[in-house]
Amino acid sequence: MTIQYPTIADCVGNTPLVRLQRLPGETSNTILVKLEGNNPAGSVKDRPALSMIARAEARGDIKPGDTLIEATSGNTGIALAMAAAIKGYKFILIMPDNSSAERKAAMTAYGAELILVSKEEGMEGARDLAVRLAAEGRGKVLDQFANGDNPEAHYSSTGPELWQQTNGSITHFVSSMGTTGTIMGVSRFLKEMNSAIQIIGLQPMEGASIPGIRRWPQEYLPKIYQAERVDRIIDMAQAEAEHVMRRLAREEGIFCGVSSGGSVAAALRLSQEVENAVIVAIICDRGDRYLSTGVYDQPN
To answer: Which positions bear N6-(pyridoxal phosphate)lysine (predicted)?
Structure first.
């Protein structure tokens, strides 16, 4: 009998869903968090990264040996670099230079070429440069912001997992919004299962800088985003997101990034408004890729 051992790609998804024990306080609600940092490259972006490459390959749009290009703020880039290493692609990643040192090092560790744009140019500048490089024949852009294979990954995996793990009892889903792939795919699936489930998106307040999530100018709004799939949007202050992030580590043993702290902060706010609810928030990644920023050095 031949044993079929899994590959690293087979280990993406099926992440744990765990209950918060201390942060919610006395409440009739259950607050659950999905630990996407347990994916092989350490974030929720492992799912769309593999999806975008595998589906493009299946359509014949790309083939191993091709050079791929993507603009990223970090997690997608790390995940795509991993997926490219698995499948045999060269990768050029473009990101703002104020991203954490750990993120940059992780991308190059997987063999990707890294091009930095200034903090002022930001993700908009990174996206524009990706388009220019593709026009110059340097490679093909996957474009996570307009690529339907991004939300499809969450429609086919994250959403069904949440439904199964809560036995269909989920009442609210909270997710940070960057490319919006996670919230679009999960919303589509959960609303098909139960249209009463509330989908809550998180964006930073004006002036806040929370890695991985954005308030997009209208001209850069991701093309995959469909406003009707989100029931409510919560604006999150950077200080509140960082405060809850540190509390998650110190009081729940959950070590994560700032956007995850923001998602849980939004879930805790929501818990003050409802009763007997099952609220699920996404823990996007792990906290170790933020240590050099000093965000964990601050007292709570």
So the answer is: 45
